[in-house]
Amino acid sequence: MQIPIETLTLPNGLTVVLSEDHTAPLVAVNLWYHVGSANERAGRTGFAHLFEHMLFQGSADVGANEHFELVQRAGGTLNGSTWLDRTNYFETVPSNQLELALWLEANRMGYLLPAMTQQKLDTQRDVVQNERRWSMDNQPYGTWWERLPALAFPIDHPFHHSLIGSMADLDAASLDDIAHFFQTYYTPDNAVLTVAGDFDAGDARRMVERHFGPIPRGAAKPPLPDMTVPPTFGGPLREVVADDVMLPRLFLAFRSPVFGSDAYYAASVAGAILGMRRGSRLHRALVREQQVAAEAQAFTYDLSKGSDLLVVDVTARPETSVGTLERAVHAEVDLMHRAGVTEAEVARAVTLIETELVAALQSAGERADRLSMFATYFGDPQLLNQQASRYRAVTTEQVNAVIRERLGRDNRASLLYVPRDADTEPTQSDLAMAEVP
Amino acid sequence: MSTSTRAPSHAAAPRPRPTAPRSYHFPHFERRTLANGLQLIVAPVTKLPIATVIAVVDAGAEGESPGKEGVAALTARLLPEGAAGVDGAALAERFERIGASVESRADWDITAVSLTALSARLPEALAMVRDLLRAPDFPEREVARLKDERLAELLQQRTEPRGLADEHFARALYATSARYAVPAEGDATSVRALTRADVRAFYDARYRPAGTTLIFAGDVTTEQATAMTEQLFGDWHGARPSPVTADVDRAQAGQLVRVVAKADAPQSELRVGHRGLVRNTPEYFDVVVMNAVLGGLFSSRINLNLREAHGYTYGAFSSYDWRRGAGPFVVHTAVKSDVTGVAVREILAEIDRMRGAEIGADELTLATSYLDGVFPIRYETTAAIAAALANLVIYDLPDDYYDTYRTRVRAVTTSSVLRAAQAHLHPDEIRVVVVGDPSVIAAPVGAVTGMPVDVVSPETIERTPSTEAKS
Q1: Alpha-carbon distance values, B346 to A126, B169, B271, B303, B448 (Å)
Q2: Which of A48, A179, B213, B271 lies 20 to 30 angstroms, CA to CA, from B388?
């Protein structure tokens, strides 16, 4: 299965990826800006995400709240999202509305600032602070996605700090920050635009040139500090969080090869053997056989710089003690580290991953998003067509090599949630884990 | 603010107009019926080498006997935990080895066993689904384990505001005897009491060829699907399951304002609404458009008010939970604790405003052109097409339902929306349920509703032993 892909670059540096598919009269427009929370300066955590909200507040020719309304009135779906190293904006619209979607994206890329007001910023600050309460502060275990990167990356590393941001930093964000961030990062040469679905390539090229062509190139953006970290933590890390939860839950993170590298595919397969679906090792051992866990899974962050993280996530059963949970999870990882995996396990994982890929690529929005991703991270959207073969090429030896290198005791960051009112405070683990710095 | 150094002259082209739309038809499908009454619907879609099969079984939670709440969900989840003498671990391994994903879940109306696989692997995968549906073993150990996992989930929910709010809201809407008052997966009282014999009895009563439809969508022909189904299910026998007669959706009388205490909560999880409508209501399209304007879309009245005008919340929406019986109509949001009272006031005012006057022509066209335009986007995947076809079966909708959907959306008018709002929004039946910090929110919520506020603890959801002693 090969997806047709055409790439061009406008004189202002905008990378444009076109992928035609005339199955249904719809088209996905997807824009990746190569900026995320990693680019935030000190004292402005959460700004990249707050800024993403501001991009829905109108631009020179689009009124407040009109962006959503125009796309929905056109019969389209839309959203945006912010990640550690990128921010994306996307809509899927009926194919006869392609130019509207392109015009809206171009209008806010080129002419955002005239629409920015203090009142809009204050409202979106409130909205984002409520998003933080909703997704993290008032949700059991909700702070894990702030605490885990903080535990797994050194304090001065761009991935260390909170993506959603602290309330104080959000309070401090100003209109000057908006203007500065926009001028620095929201430039055509720092973006990838993908159009996927039912369109004529010639028409699309003309529309893209008409709407994005006049937007000037930006100045060079400030370089990120060196992201390199050693391949392992060099010793176990551990943090215990007493939270308003009923059941203990353990997040165990390993530094793993960066997304896109050869070793990444082997690590991704190792993660799937460990924790993808009910046939995985963790589910079989901890949920089904030992019955110490209610849920068990593993996943990767897919970070393309510095280090990726492979994360094991296991929630205890009510009768399982914190010590039992920790011992059981580490024992499973130890077993895999000691004895490796079999060819049959690798085959299961690769087949599952490949089927999931095919299922995902049915949707124009998914195709567009992945094309933007490969173009942004590696400058090559064609990599999407190589994913299945790269997974199929993974050998058992490669998986076992990455397991030996990355799943040892010297490479585990353990974030453990325990019920706040529990009698036993497990500050001292019988695994003799080191204190968190 | 500082001025942009970029684009000093405003050079944007004017707002583009749409070109002529390309036509779209919902995927063509065919029906077959086997001699044993099993139905078959096939929608060949050949874009990618993948197919989805959903087996829709007339075995929803509404078919449970009193005291057995949760047995439908437990039965469904047990299907892949042992069948035809093969244990759950081996079954999982067999499905996953060929990349197939299989899920079996019961909801209020039905049980669905859903399979997605590369089309080359479909015959093999479907043969295993046959065993799940026709020869489940229900091993004692797995019955005990899945019960324990449900109890763990219920325990966790005591500190999870959203699940807690939904569960307390359902209990506020429905009479104690109504099935909808208790979660579809059962509560701690009912789940603890379930046995393997209950599961077996429910399976025997509800899993029958004549109450089952197999839906195929994707890279498969009608002939292939029919042949596979004949071969795997042709010799399955049994009479049609008896119709459901239980009290499913009887409403609790009167209004109610309840605070579920979560001390120091930084946010209040809000549910405001009342019993809604059955899926087959004749005014379905008027109600859907009415709800889109009220709180169904991002640009709806409730979200623009609570989020964009006031910044009270990350999002505020209203929805109808469509079921065979009358599911909830609910406005749901989470707001900063200190604005809980005013947020409730704004929600109630928006509900009143829907009933007070016709919506604007712009509001109507926003909702209708959205629902009309987004229609093809909803059916990009084999899983989505199969799920849409399942709805025809579950709600007994006509075969031309998806062909006429867009015309019917466009036929909704501002006056039919007003009639729907006046007929189906009931301010005098509103229940307000808030999970939050009572010391901050009880007084303001009482003040804006003019109602006594009933403060309860999260644990009060457990029924007392006296009500459980009916089995």
Answers
A1: 17, 19, 13, 11, 10
A2: B271
Question: CB of A272 within 8 Å of any CB in chain B?
Answer: no
Q: Which tens digit of pLDDT belongs to each residue from A182-201?
A: 999 999 999 999 999 999 99
To the nearest whole number, what is the mean pLDDT of chain A?
94
Instruction: Place B3 in a pLDDT band, splitting at 50, 70 and 90.
Output: very low
Sign, Cα dihedral of A294, A298, A301, A305: positive
DSSP string for A194-239: EEEES--HHHHHHHHHHHHTTSPPPPPPPPPPP----SS-SS-EEE
Is the pTM here over 0.90, yes or no?
yes
How many Å lie between the alpha carbon of A81 and the closest alpha carbon of chain B? 14
Report the amino acid identity of residue B21: P
DSSP character at residue B64: P
Average pLDDT of every residue of chain B: 94
Q: Are A58 and A113 in contact (CB under 8 A)?
A: no
B9 in contact with A at a CB cutoff of 8 Å? no
Cβ-nearest to B16 among A100, A110, A135:
A100
Q: Where are the beta strands (DSSP E) in A15-85?
A: 15-20, 26-33, 77-82
Report yes or no: B287 and B210 within 8 Å, Cβ to Cβ: no
Going by pLDDT thresholds of 50, 70 and 90, the confidence category of residue B461 is low
Coil, strand or helix: which one is B434?
strand
- Residue B459: what pLDDT? 78
- Smallest CA-to-CA distance from A327 within A274, A288, A297, A285 is with A285
Residue B310's identity, in one-letter code, is H
Instruction: Quote the pLDDT of residue B458.
Output: 86
Q: Are A270 and A262 in contact (CB under 8 A)?
A: no
Tell me the residues of chain B between 65 and 124 that have a Cβ less than 8 Å away from chain A. Answer: 80, 88-89, 92-93, 95-101, 116-118
* pLDDT computed for residue B47 by the predictor: 84
Cα–Cα distance for residue pair A71/B16, rounded to 1 Å:
12
B21-46 pLDDT, tens digit each: 999 999 999 999 999 999 999 999 98
Chain B interface, mutation test: which of A73, A105, A123, most B Cβ atoms within 10 Å?
A73
What is the Cα–Cα distance from B207 to B129, expressed in whole angstroms?
A: 13
Enumerate the β-bridge partners of residue B124.
Answer: none
pLDDT confidence bin for B254, thresholds 50/70/90: confident
DSSP state of B187: -
* C-alpha distances in Å from residue A361, one per residue of A285, B122, B167, B218, B380: 32, 19, 36, 14, 10
Tell me which residue in B95, B311, B380 faces A363 most closely, judged by beta carbons. B380
pLDDT band at A1 (very low <50, low <70, confident <90, very high): confident
From start to end of A190-349, where are the E strands? Answer: 191-197, 237-243, 249-256, 293-300, 308-316
B311 with A215: Cβ contact below 8 A:
no
Residue A422 pLDDT exceeds 80 = no
